[in-house]
Design a protein that fits this description.
The structure is a homodimer.
Chain A lengths: L1 H12 L14 E14 L2 E7 L4 E6 L2 H6 L8 E10 L7 E12 L18 H6 L1 H4 L3 H22 L4 E2 L5 E2 L12 E4 L2 E5 L4 H11 L1 E9 L12 E10 L5 H21 L1 H6 L13 E3 H12 L11 H15 L3 E5 L12 E2 L2 E5 L1 E6 L2 E9 L3 H10 L8 H8 L5 E7 H8 L21
Parallel strand pairs in A: 3-5, 6-10, 12-13
Antiparallel strand pairs in A: 1-2, 1-4, 2-3, 4-5, 7-9, 8-9, 10-11, 11-18, 13-16, 14-15, 16-17, 17-18
């Protein structure tokens, strides 16, 4: 008997999500969430309830129920049980009538920022300073739903191709890229340590173990610039793969990933893109691949930019090349390849045909670099020679070099900046909008 | 015509994995990988090839092919094309005959540690010091395949239940748990910063946004002890969920996760467990849940341990209680609940019926705590009171407290130590074996 009663209570409490009420027309349902909007008109309260899924409207009638809302304001956490009625003007085409309301957590003080407006009228600093509450805004949430789709697709796509996830350390004794420059120092039991600026060494080691590996983890750059596209702590979607025939295979894989990602977003995220006024990019056929030197010729010819021979593209040039690619090559993405050896880290493989150029690439998207990648040297003696040429001491890289001494296949990989990719997918103005709790030169909180 | 030829080359190069050769009996296949074992007998070489999937044997006959192996030793990276022949004694019941071998990366120097033995005869320090090569040993690889299954199951299980992944910062200005004690200091542009010891504050903030969130990321503990079960940098599988009815729901969820995980391991990982001589735990029915005080009574009665009233279990007690649970309750897992308030962080919710006890729990498994969890306070005023009682200053926690000011549902969550769970699943002696590149008080490399 007791069991029957308990089951009955549980059933009556079963929670429906706001987005599901239109499947329950005529039935009684229970919603839980935050009071997103509250309008009191005479003896009636109109509540827009927000839960993790979306919004739904409820009409609170009668003094008994309305008394519970006395002195309370938005963001109060409530449970509302009511009958679902068709209502074209309400979200999801339905609303709740004859409601009983239960206060879970009362809020008496108005939230300092109106998060229930479509456009929150706050500047970037206010938005970020008040993250714990501004993230509750539906548009803000949409950004991170898309970000989660990107990460999940990265993992699932690679798992489906025989890659395995690795966890590589972020507290390190030195860096491959800059040897300590632009790295954050950590006091590690009185020893000198740094925060890793990339998993490069470790993911190459792991190619010797599992051939194809990936990692989705924070990396740290102690760069002092404050721009709209740099964070000092960001999530890097990293992969590294062995037994490649050539460096084009790495770009092929990223292209396939991006196609698979856009398909996923079309399936799962249309609503989020709509909310943010952004368009899911189309990738038709191959993403164009041009050499840096070709790109520089285009920049001179089309934009009058005299940059031929420069080791890299300036931000302005990246914008121009993307504009060019979209207009003339019908692509929002473009691979720029063959960066000069002197601009790339020592482990980058040179092009045998043109040794001053490397088998490396950047992927540009909507005006910004979103990926760096390339093929790595895999022969021990080649490392020794390259290090000697650069005045580096192989003894400083003993752990790393040991893997090449004992057999490594041709390999290469990429690193994708998650927040930057999210920003460009959603046409956000600033990368900080694509990080839940961004860290920059001035910001360590919230 | 050119297209036909290119296709033919690609087809002939198509790579087969070692574990798949038994499906290709009588056919010619190409394997790629490392020479795991090499035995030269007269004019014949017996090669055991290792690739990411496993091992396969190839017989290299004839002086032309054997000459290529002259001066070379194990770990040489090769491509071998040959005909698959049934051979009961070989791995996967088949081996390659009439082989052509191509040297991809030659190795002339013997690897200092014999990684091709079933049991590498090295001590823990040597194992870890030489990680870049010892990880190539098949038993070592098996550990991290299991680890990857655990993480993937955690994510997939939670995604299936409406959770969303969050990325919370690891560079923070203070800590919730100890307020800076036992945290690593970071020099953050001359500002005082720390490495996060848990995502606690952020995951609670995110309950206010998405209700149910998870994160799989490194956390940092600057504890000076050097034990077989602590790492200073470890992956925490964290989740936090809102709108719970009671704290038991959190344990219910973990129980379901663990059941789902053991099912997955039975499907995907039997071979890895066999290789490591470990057994996948069985979870029949509910995992027992007992109060700390009950556990202490059992310890006194069964083991003569006088610990009633102690705020926590000692490592010895954890072992004893697990032994007891296995013998008497038929479970390798046991939840210990109701730790005293003074032993738990300020955000832990007290039991209304017994205010000195909290709605918190640890999960013990095979003698060790693998999870800490509990229900959190969700009412603003309750935080203020608790902080006052503990002599804490609410102003130091302004960001955090703002979420409770503006409505939070009842919520709670858990943190699972990934390496520790891996260690106990596989009966490893030391947690360092369950970390690719472990960090401890003495170790910052490789």
């Amino acid at each position: 008997m007791a069991k029957v009663i308990i089951t009955a209570i549980i059933l009556s409490m079963k929670r429906t999500l706001t987005t599901e009420i239109n499947k329950e027309i005529g039935k009684e349902v229970t919603l839980s969430g935050w009071i997103h909007k509250l309008r009191k008109l005479g003896g009636i309260s109109f509540v827009v309830l927000r839960d993790r899924a979306g919004l739904a409207q409820a009409v609170i009638d009668g003094s008994k129920e309305n008394d519970k809302l006395k002195d309370l304001t938005t963001e109060t956490v409530v449970r509302i049980t009511g009958k679902v009625v068709k209502e074209e003007r309400a979200p999801h085409g339905a609303e709740l009538h004859d409601c009983k309301i239960e206060i879970i957590s009362p809020v008496k003080e108005d939230i300092p920022i109106a998060i229930n407006k479509k456009e929150m009228s706050v500047n970037l600093d206010t938005l970020i300073d008040n993250r714990p509450i501004t993230l509750r805004n539906p548009k803000q949430r949409a950004i991170f739903r898309v970000q989660s789709e990107i990460t999940n697709e990265f993992r699932e796509f690679l798992e489906g191709r025989g890659f395995i996830e690795v966890n590589t350390p972020k507290t390190v004794s030195s860096g491959l890229e800059t040897g300590g420059a632009e790295m954050f120092k950590v006091d590690y039991f009185k020893k000198k340590a740094y925060l890793a600026q990339s998993p490069q060494m470790y993911k190459q080691i792991m190619v010797g173990v599992f051939e194809k590996v990936y990692e989705t983890a924070y990396v740290y750059r102690a760069e002092k610039h404050s721009t709209s596209r740099h964070l000092n702590e960001y999530v890097s979607l990293d992969l590294e793969m062995g037994f490649i025939e050539n460096y084009e295979e790495i770009m092929d894989l990223e292209e396939e990933f991006l196609k698979s990602l856009t398909e996923r977003l079309k399936k799962n995220s249309v609503e989020n893109f709509e909310m943010l006024g952004a368009e899911i990019p189309q990738i038709k056929g191959k993403i164009p691949r041009i050499k840096l030197s070709e790109a520089q010729k285009i920049l001179e010819k089309e934009y009058g930019e005299k940059c031929l021979g420069e080791p890299d593209l300036e931000p302005k040039h990246e914008k121009q090349i993307c504009e060019y690619a979209q207009k003339n090559l019908g692509s929002e993405f473009i691979f720029i390849t063959h960066y000069p050896s002197k601009k790339r880290p020592f482990y980058t493989m040179s092009d045998l045909k043109e040794p001053k150029e490397t088998l490396s690439f950047d992927l540009l998207f909507r005006g910004v670099e979103v990926t760096t990648g390339g093929q790595r040297i895999h022969i021990y003696e080649d490392y020794l020679k390259k290090m000697k040429d650069r005045g580096m001491n192989p003894e400083d890289f003993e752990d790393y070099l040991s893997i090449f001494k004992y057999g490594m296949p041709p390999h290469g990989g990429i690193g994708i900046g998650l927040e930057r990719l999210t920003m460009k997918f959603l046409n956000l103005d600033n990368i900080r909008e694509a990080s839940l709790f961004p860290r920059d030169i001035n910001r360590l909180r919230p």
